[in-house]
Amino acid sequence: MMIMNEQIKASEVLLTGINGEDLGIVTREEALALAKQYKVDLICTSLMSSPPPCKLISKGVAKQDASSQKREEKKKDQPLKAKEIRLTPHIEDHDYDTKLRQCEKLLASGNAVDLVVRIQGKEGAKAKELLEQLVKDLASSGKKETGIQLSGKQAAVRLLPV
């Protein structure tokens, strides 16, 4: 929410000029007159102090700033995308290194990673060992969100980017 020009209700404002110079405390009318004179907008930057600090900003720039700020906030509010990486308990060293690099790349780009090991028979301990090793190797780029979960057919753990 941005308060500009006539929307500002305070009788006095702490005014900052177009080039960042401090113009001191002036009345609302004076500030609006200056804004009209220089063909710029008067923007209130905070309502938490008295008198509220206001700036003279060229027309349109303030609205662009506000819309880009809203876009950034929307991006941050979106939930993490979780990518699933599937493994088997009997993985070769080269394949392990490839999966490790893949996980590092995903974590670096801001995605969460679900590591899932398919289990058959009595491979549970080996699968857990493999996941613990992966979590240890990925400690620099990701941290565990959940513990290692063993269920009937799979072992899984979720890593979040650091």
Overview of the molecule:
By secondary structure, the protein is of the alpha+beta class. 35% of the residues lie in helices and 31% in strands. It contains 4 helices and 10 strands; from the N terminus they run βββαββαβαβαβββ. The chain has helices spanning 28-37, 61-77, 93-108, 124-137, and strands at residues 3-4, 12-16, 22-27, 40-44, 53-58, 82-87, 112-118, 142-144, 149-150, 154-161. Strands 1-4-5-2-3 form a 5-stranded mixed β-sheet, covered by helices on one side. A hairpin with a 5-residue loop joins strand 2 (12-16) and strand 3. The chain is rod-shaped and about 80 Å long. The mean pLDDT is 87.
Q: Assign an overall shape.
A: rod-shaped
Q: How much is the radius of gyration in Å?
A: 28 Å
Output the number of helix runs. 4
Task: Give the mean pLDDT.
Answer: 87
Tell how many strands the DSSP assignment holds.
10
Q: How is the secondary structure organized here?
A:
Elements: E1 3-4, E2 12-16, E3 22-27, H1 28-37, E4 40-44, E5 53-58, H2 61-77, E6 82-87, H3 93-108, E7 112-118, H4 124-137, E8 142-144, E9 149-150, E10 154-161
Parallel strand pairs: 2-5, 6-7
Antiparallel strand pairs: 1-4, 2-3, 4-5, 7-10, 8-10, 9-10
